[in-house]
Specification:
CATH architecture of the largest domain: 3-Layer(aba) Sandwich
Number of helices: 5
Order of helices and strands: HEHEHHEEH
Largest sheet: 4 strands, mixed
Strand content: 5-15%
CATH superfamily of the largest domain: ATP synthase, F1 complex, gamma subunit
Number of domains: 2
Shape: elongated
Amino acid sequence: MQGIRDIKRRIRSVKSTEQITRAMKMVAAAKLKGAEKLVKESRPYARTMQNVFQNIMARSEDVKHPLLITRHGNKACYVVITADRGLCGGFNTNITRLAIEKSKGQKAVFLPIGRKGRDYLAFRGYPLLNQGYLAGDKPDVALVQNIVLDLITRYQKEEFDSVYLVYSRYVSPLTQESRVVRLLPAEITNEIDNQNENHIHEEYLYEPSALGLLDTLIPRYLITQVYRGLVENHAGELGSRMTAMDNATKNAEEMIADLTLQYNRARQAAITQEIAEIVGGAEALR
């Protein structure tokens, strides 16, 4: 059995860890409310943008836009959104592993958004498009615009034949779903939570032309896709961290209870031994 001093030292150490995990849980829970609000506010806009794009594409089948043409090459770019910090369970690892799995068989290059994804990919020797970007504490629209416009330029120069977005969709603090969405060539996806709504399809009049409208609409549609991925990913990170820290706090409490029991037993054994020695000494003096 461990000595009393060692047990007391371990109890103090675990209590300090428990205070940290409890504080991190509370901070994540407080931030999660704002992140959930941002998710709810961003989804209707993204859904509307998707419906407009779908409506125009349905009425522009004869339009051949360079960002819509499917290529048969094998060069792909994966935009991988993760968090800048850890201590959120397997959240970051699940996203990066999904990106690696989907890229098998392709000449893939990765564009990480988030420190954890960048470090994971760089450490394992996967090719990076550049040094990547930090996800930040709040999704940045200006950052998304710069990333998307750079990807469009590279795609038009045929540096790669397709572009994919890998992120985690927020469902609840306990549930996050890692997903892969194709950005280029642009396509209609059902990734947005449409809640089976019945949308009114209206007839559009193009001015000056459908092709000119797509020149403006496609970049905005892609910006919406990436921004939504950042928003969903940020909420998922906070939810996963809150859950992980809650589990860590509970484990620390159980460990403290076990160590306290060991401490009491060791202390009782030490007292019993001292009493036995005193009684033995008294008997020897008789």
